Amino acid sequence: MKKKELLAPAGDLEAGYAALFYGADAVYLGLKRFSARATAANFDEGELNEFVGFAHARGKKVYAAVNTLVEEDELPELLKSLDICSRCRVDAVILQDLGAARIVREKYPELELHASTQMAVHNKEGALALKKLGFSRVVLARELSLAEIKDIASIPGLETEAFIHGALCYSYSGMCLFSSLECGRSANRGKCLYPCRAEFEGENGDRHYFSMKDMALKDDVLKMPVTSLKIEGRKKNALYVAAVTDYYRRILDGKGCDTAREENIKQIFSRPWSEFHLHGKDKTVVEPDFVGHRGLPAGRIEQVFKGRISLHVRHDVADAHGDRLTRHLVRALKEAGIRLDGVRRQRDDVRAVGEIVRRLVEADVAVAADAQKLDVDAARRMNRLVVCLYVGGGIAAGQMHVFLAQVDLAEQMLLHERMVAQRVF
Hints:
The chain is of the alpha/beta class.
């Protein structure tokens, strides 16, 4: 069986180098125009030329996403973008607009055509139609089950690509007009404002009724008969790209799921994980009570009795952060309505006790890497106490955010060793 391609995202050069360094076989990215992630940094011609040269020298591939719908008066700019792709020798262009595909076929035959997931290919007939139009690969709709994926992947002479990790849209791939109608900014033009993440009034109160969990297929990726396994995240930073790529690289190399690496991802950025509809229709893919970065569970509330609370903090979290744990516990619990009397440490056992100022029901304790993204009110509504801790070697402080900003190829191994020493990976 042919080796599966691990395809990672790059919203900028830093993320691109991180993806390749941590095991991606290919990287997909956008240019300054016609990218479905228009608000990402994206690549100009100089950056694209540099990165393609770097990737090709190491036997890796680069795909350019030119995957928005194109208006008639934008055709001259589209040709300029396609010229850049041709000059920089990208391995393929990812397209949504069939008019753009016709231009590539006629004017840029050297560019391979990949059909974007925005084209909503969800059955064998759609894939066959695109094959006839000259597409060599189809990026499948995220909503497909494993059986449906296998059916499309059985088409001879057509490559298939499927998402395995990352953010999900409430609407079907490529068919959402929510942002366009509500905000005047179309997702199909790369300008989505994500109104689906907002809070709406409903029968059960104000909740995030359309906010999806993140896809995370973990070792189920080994069952997928596709050509390429795709990680979502062109708007994520290099640290996230590195962590997720490293996690799936190990799975594909037969090393299995790694709990420590999984926790790294959840510390950097993660909503609750879901397999989506891979094994059949799942009605629990929405997370209505908490939006944004959730973080890593840090401990458990052991007892809530007569206005008093007792928390047991995971020893590995406590050991990693020492005295800082006390400071952040005191601050975050105060925000959640709890006044701590103290934090007691005995070897690897850490317990915190305090007085409940506002009513709270026994719940899990969670860690968020960024206090600014903490929604305490939403957490309380779901009876969940959220504790903000600085976890993972300074991730929250941004100390490792630029770990590949000025990459020196001769120093990459040194950078990796430094990251290991700082407990980032």
